[in-house]
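Hey, can you fold this one?
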Amino acid sequence: MKEMDGITRRRFVMSAASAATVGALPMDSRADSNLQNSTNQERITLTPYLLFNGNCHEAMEFYRSCLGGGLEVMKVKESAVRNHMPQAQQEKVLNARLRTGGLDISASDWLRPGRTPVRGNTVCMYLSCGLELLKVLFEKLSDGAEVTDPLTAQFFGVYGALNDRFGVRWMFVSNEQAG
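Sure. Predicted structure:
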């Protein structure tokens, strides 16, 4: 497919799918991680986000059987991105969330056919906060990082992702719209 402005249609759809995955997560009830910024006392939440190679639903059911709690699962075919995803991915999990007590784990199936899931890129740190603080944190963590998804306005707010200089995958989201 023809590349336009440095982004292919496939990369756009995969970025949209990744963004939709994190956008499907409610913003008001993340894990209770409070980090303080000296100039901004706003709440930042950090949630583990797991990526599976087609067996997300099975894995999250197993974790629920071990840890208890409530499990919410949304497949690609049940989401707003269903018409933008290939038929082969319609049964994959776009977003799963297990919550019990102070435990909150989110997950999805691997939805980037151009990239291979390997140990090390299947666990992410999912950071959410207000837009201005999100921009500051993204900029700081970008130092020496591979920015895979620049902060971009999406239908649910703003999303971005990077692999920091130590190889840790970070996903950033704010439900505030970019101004």
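The chain has a mean pLDDT of 79. Let me know if you want another pass with a different chain boundary.
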